[in-house]
Design goal:
- There is one protein chain.
- The protein is an alpha+beta fold and about 160 residues long.
- It has one domain: Multidrug-efflux Transporter 1 Regulator Bmrr, Chain A.
- Helix content is about 20%, strand content about 35%.
- The protein contains two helices and nine strands, in the order ββαββββαβββ.
- The longest helix has 14 residues.
């Protein structure tokens, strides 16, 4: 279900990041980065993100996992994400494939006379629900995916 769609300027913020190799799982690497940040005394913030430099469907798509942090963390790569003008779409749950939301967002961009900017293709941000319904031994709230929000952002020009 689409919650919001529009155009906005993102904020400039520091993120911890890790470039992914082909075949590496975004979920696993985000969990590892999050764990490392906590072990080093940092307090990561929502949302966890995946930055796609190339179209997602390309076999050798260059990707990074990103987690906002309030300071540099020794031994962890950090960088400042710049302000970006993006078209965005927020959806809740998993009732439709993410690709269908990309199609809607690209249609929205075209209808407004915008065009995707170069440099990166998209960012997917996942926001945790306010309350959890974790199974015994679970680290992810897979029992209630309808409570998770995902935001797709596509940098735009025009």
């Amino acid at each position: 279900m689409i919650d919001k769609i529009g155009v906005k300027t993102t904020i400039r913020e520091m993120v911890a990041y890790r470039a992914l190799k082909s075949g590496e799982s975004e979920v696993v690497e985000l969990a590892r980065l999050n764990k490392e940040l906590y072990e080093k005394g940092a307090r990561p913030r929502d949302p966890t993100m995946v930055l796609f430099y190339d179209p997602k469907e390309e076999p050798e798509c260059r990707r990074e996992v990103l987690i906002p942090v309030d300071r540099e963390v020794e031994g962890v790569a950090t960088k400042m994400m710049p302000e970006l003008k993006v078209a965005f779409l927020v959806f809740i749950g998993t009732s439709r494939p993410v690709e269908s939301y990309y199609e809607e967002l690209y249609r929205y961009i075209e209808e407004r006379g915008l065009r995707p900017a170069s440099g990166m293709c998209s960012i997917e941000a996942v926001y945790q629900p306010a309350e959890y319904g974790l199974s015994y031994g679970s680290l992810i709230d897979e029992d209630a995916p309808e409570h998770w929000s995902t935001e797709i952002m596509i940098p735009v020009e025009g």
